[in-house]
């Protein structure tokens, strides 16, 4: 038999005075003891009142009962507000601890820095807002708490990346390896994924500690784990960029060869595009100049000045007495990309002061004053400045490979121009050379020699960037699809490319937003072009992100923090390198309860 619909289970106002009950969040609540009654039926409410509270309140008349109910309701609201406030303060304290832990990680500070910050917070609170002291005291910032919060934040970022990875239509990897302060090899793997809306996500995929050897097989196993753990299909991998080391780029036993073999085993239809980091190649091209003698001489001079404290102090005092624009000379560090140019330019500007100082020290400066050496130093300064400018163009996050390739092509064109101008004795784009040429005889300045150097450098650029030249057609499809020759385009996109090039609305949009943003406006009716754009947008042109991460690693895991665990190091670097993603602190705080830490304790 069906239940009787006449049965009324709505709460009646008269029950407040009769049974001392009220209605809170769709449930009857006893005003005396705070108990909830599951079903809003008079029988249940009456039974609770008669068995629990009848004897105590039976002598009250209706007026007294109504007054008592109002008092109890006010008390109940006050209790609820107190609990809400306590819960809010607890959640705020937990959120604050997560925020501080994230900032500690980003600044490469040790975990126990939280305890120092807590002491500072409490002292400031005593002066500025002493009534809030308990709220500040509830923020847990002990060493262990900060370490746990750091791991939670990193896990949350990884979970977000995994969720985003489900929408990737194409992704590429950038892989590099370096050693930390304890000589442990650390493998950095960054991912650049593009979803169906052509939005780019660029994040750290994995940071693996390799305590043994670092052969191509072992690197591949770690990279394979990174891809498998995040549940990405191998057939969506379109690009792989490495530092060019044999263990990375070996066609059989290297990472590149093994990734290609893995893709064949997975029956992947697409072809893997492999690049050697553009920035590394640009630095290697500079070695073709073979002007080590000039650099060696400059390095020896700088080392003489900087190696001994007395010489260094006297040189700085000498520059100050001379009223020099510069206060010092810098050390040359081979691994720093821009170090060479800065050292050379500073020494060129201070060449006269350096010679005078060395003579006071009894050093022979004949070589430093030779016209041939000064000409070589001037040329080396200028070409290093041009190379540094290119290097800066290639650095940075979120760089599109087409823009990087365009910068390299522009530099190659400049080299041809400079070569012709140098042959004509017109170094107009080489200010240091112009300065020296004005001081010496024109016949002495070796224009033909420097023109040959520029020719060699141009040839080296062409040789090293041949793999990018081979992809020229695909790169132009992203950089300027309206100028691509349809006949040279892949056959599967030719029809869509014709439609695109004949669409004046899309051409106007391209002119308005530029090449980087235009792919998002390609209509869904051109799926092949959108897929092609997604693949090119996902490409890494360099391993800059890996190098940047290793710089952070050096600041994080120093000689004083060698005992930092692999998990903690990985968590810190994931937080500090996050760009497209940010930790969901609200979600993390909702899973934690407030943990009050004392000032005098240390976990």
Automatic annotation (TrEMBL):
Domain SPIN-DOC-like zinc-finger, by residue range, is 13-71
* InterPro entries per the UniProt record, alphabetical: RNaseH-like_sf (IPR012337), SPIN-DOC_Znf-C2H2 (IPR040647)
TM regions (residue ranges) = none
- Superkingdom of origin organism: Eukaryota
Q: Which SUPFAM superfamilies match?
A: Ribonuclease H-like
- A Pfam family found in this protein is zf-C2H2_12
Q: What is this protein called?
A: SPIN-DOC-like zinc-finger domain-containing protein
């Amino acid at each position: 038999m069906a239940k009787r619909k006449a049965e009324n289970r709505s709460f009646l106002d008269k029950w407040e005075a009769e049974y001392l009950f009220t209605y809170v969040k769709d449930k009857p609540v006893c005003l005396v003891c705070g108990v909830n009654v599951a079903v809003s039926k008079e029988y249940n409410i009456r039974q609770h009142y008669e068995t629990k509270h009848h004897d105590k309140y039976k002598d009250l008349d209706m007026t007294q009962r109504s007054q008592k109910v109002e008092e109890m309701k006010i008390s109940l609201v006050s209790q609820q507000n107190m609990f809400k406030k306590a819960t809010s303060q607890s959640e705020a304290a937990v959120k604050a601890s997560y925020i501080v832990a994230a900032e500690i990680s980003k600044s490469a500070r040790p975990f126990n820095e939280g305890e120092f910050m807590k002491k500072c917070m409490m002292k400031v609170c005593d002066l500025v807002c002493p009534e809030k002291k308990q709220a500040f005291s509830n923020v847990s910032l002990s060493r262990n708490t900060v370490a746990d919060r750091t791991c939670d934040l990193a896990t949350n970022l990884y979970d977000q990346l995994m969720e985003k990875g489900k929408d990737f239509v194409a992704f590429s990897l950038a892989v590099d390896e370096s050693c930390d302060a304890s000589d442990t090899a650390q493998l950095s793997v960054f991912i650049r994924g593009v979803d169906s809306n052509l939005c780019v996500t660029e994040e750290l995929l994995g940071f693996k500690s390799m305590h043994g050897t670092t052969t191509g097989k072992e690197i591949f196993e770690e990279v394979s784990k990174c891809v498998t753990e995040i549940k990405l299909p191998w057939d969506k991998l379109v690009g792989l960029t490495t530092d060019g080391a044999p263990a990375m780029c070996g066609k059989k036993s290297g990472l590149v060869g093994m990734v290609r073999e893995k893709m064949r085993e997975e029956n992947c239809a697409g072809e893997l595009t492999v690049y050697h980091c553009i920035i590394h190649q640009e630095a290697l091209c500079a070695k073709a100049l073979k002007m080590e003698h000039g650099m060696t001489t400059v390095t020896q001079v700088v080392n003489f000045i900087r190696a001994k404290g007395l010489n260094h102090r006297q040189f700085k005092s000498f520059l100050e007495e001379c009223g020099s624009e510069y206060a010092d000379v810098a050390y040359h560090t081979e691994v720093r990309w821009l170090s060479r140019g800065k050292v050379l330019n500073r020494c060129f500007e201070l060449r006269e002061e350096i010679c005078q100082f060395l003579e006071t020290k009894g050093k022979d400066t004949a070589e430093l004053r030779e016209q041939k050496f000064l000409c070589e130093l001037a040329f080396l300064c200028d070409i290093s400045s041009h190379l540094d400018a290119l290097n800066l163009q290639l650095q940075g996050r979120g760089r599109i490979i087409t823009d990087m390739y365009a910068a390299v092509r522009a530099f190659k064109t400049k080299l041809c121009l400079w070569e012709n101008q140098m042959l004509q004795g017109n170094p107009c784009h080489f200010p240091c050379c112009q300065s020296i040429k004005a001081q010496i005889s024109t016949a002495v300045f070796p224009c033909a020699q420097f023109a040959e150097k520029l020719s060699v450098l141009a040839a080296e650029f062409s040789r090293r960037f041949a793999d990018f030249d081979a992809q020229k057609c695909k790169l132009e499809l992203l950089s300027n699809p309206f100028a691509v020759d349809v006949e040279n385009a892949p056959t599967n996109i030719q029809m869509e490319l014709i439609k695109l090039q004949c669409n004046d609305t899309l051409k106007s949009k391209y002119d308005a937003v530029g090449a980087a943003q235009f792919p998002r406006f390609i209509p869904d009716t051109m799926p092949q072009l959108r897929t092609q754009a997604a693949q090119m947008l996902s490409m890494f042109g360099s391993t800059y992100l890996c190098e940047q991460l290793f710089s952070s690693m050096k600041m994080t895991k120093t000689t004083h923090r060698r005992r930092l665990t692999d998990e903690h190091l990985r968590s810190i670097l994931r937080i500090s390198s996050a760009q497209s993603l940010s930790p969901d602190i609200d979600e993390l705080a909702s899973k934690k309860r407030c943990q009050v830490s004392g000032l005098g304790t240390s976990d």
